[in-house]
Amino acid sequence: MKLVVQEFLSLDGVSQGPGAPDEDTSDGFERGGWFVPHLDEEFERLAGGWLGEADALLFGRRTYQNFARDWPAMADHPLAGIMNGLPKYVASRSLTTAGWDPTTILSGDVPAQVAELKRQPGRELQIHGSARLAQSLLAAGLIDALRLVIAPVVVGQGRRLFPDGGAPAGLRLAEHRTTPGGLSVHVFETAGAPGFGTYGGGGEGGAGSQGLLNTEGRTTPRAA
Predict the structure, then answer these.
(1) Strands 2-9, 54-60: parallel, antiparallel or unpaired by DSSP?
(2) Residue 81: count of CB within 10 angstroms of its CB
(3) C-alpha span between 12 and 15 (Å, rounded)
(4) How far is CA 120 from CA 14, 26, 101, 199, in A?
(5) What is the reported pLDDT for 167?
(6) The predicted structure's pLDDT at residue 194
(7) CB-count exposure of residue 133 (10 Å: 0-12, 13-18, 19+)
(8) pLDDT < 70 stretches in the chain
(9) Which one, of 132, 148, 108, lies nearest residue 26 by Cα?
(10) By CB count within 10 A, which of 26, 89, 96, 112 is most buried?
(11) What pLDDT does residue 164 have?
């Protein structure tokens, strides 16, 4: 399976608490819910299409517990059947049980277990949110692609997906579009992904981009 990260970011790179004020208040974060005002129908259709490519979901503990609380109660949501029915994996040192079936807890050497999952047949193993987990697996060279959805807002505080001092990692811009609500959608492939460095074709508005983005947010020329 291909390992794909789907993450909501602000213009200043914050990934913490996009969905609600009380979603993640760790480290004194008080500005949660910054992403929701910019949701629109086009993005919801896009997100539904992405979810349709998933054969399994992977979470960090905090995101898993939030989703496990909310999604089973959202039976009327058009994506609830997929979210609730897909096989789920949660990386955690503290969880001993997980009630959002079907769920498997990954503990110990999580990168090795994720690498084994990637060797299983299937389309995409998707990470939704779970920025700390995404950071560790990006550092381990296991991420194949990132779908970054940037809201037109500066949050001013909170954890960032790409923190200062992070190790640079080459990413190829495969697709870009902007939704009517002002969300900027960027799809990047990592250097280890099949076809990396092959430009042209594919997504709307951004395929064929001749630049690489490192994890500190700087664009550098494409290698010859």
Answers:
(1) unpaired
(2) 10
(3) 9
(4) 32, 35, 20, 28
(5) 63
(6) 57
(7) buried
(8) 166-169, 192-224
(9) 132
(10) 89
(11) 78
